[in-house]
Automatic annotation (TrEMBL):
Note on domains (UniProt): The C-terminus is necessary for mitochondrial or peroxisomal targeting, while the N-terminus is necessary for mitochondrial or peroxisomal fission.
GO cellular component, one term: mitochondrial outer membrane
Membrane topology: Single-pass membrane protein
Stored InterPro entries: Fis1, Fis1_cytosol, Fis1_TPR_C, Fis1_TPR_N, TPR-like_helical_dom_sf
Keywords assigned: Membrane, Mitochondrion, Mitochondrion outer membrane, Peroxisome biogenesis, Transmembrane, Transmembrane helix
Places the protein is found: Mitochondrion outer membrane; Peroxisome membrane
Transmembrane residue ranges: 131-155
Pfam families xref list: Fis1_TPR_C, Fis1_TPR_N
Family statement: Belongs to the FIS1 family.
Protein name, UniProt field: Mitochondrial fission 1 protein
Amino acid sequence: SVSNFFTGSDQIPWCDRDIIAGCEREVAEANKGLSDQTKSECLMRLSWALVHSRQPEDVQRGIAMLEASLDGISNRLQIRERLYLLAVGYYRIADYPRSRQIVDRCLEIAPDWRQALVLKKTVEDQIIRDGMIGVGIAVFTTIGLVAGGVAAALVRRS
């Protein structure tokens, strides 16, 4: 919608610090001897919470965790989920080209996955919006330079 264009809002949820803290407690508990499966599930919840945070340092931490967790995984569903969360993370830190590249990899695994398709559209809309803002800045800069040149010429004539 037009209002979303100007506000920059999207459909990707945010996560609060208290949820992140709860996930961190879960991971700490899981590390006290729970099964590898439980640890993995807790780490995925924490990764989800981090990349959905409003704090850039949390998002960066989530990205690092997800990238490290991709090594050694062969399950396509788990790879798809991690790639999707990585794409969200890169979107949140405004690395839109990287986000689009990763969501495309995700869609190679699951071409009809609605969540990934929505993220891809959101990323592409943001790239377009940023491009239009850049063009607007260039146009106003050019107008300012021309107006300044005309004003300087008029002052010299007087």
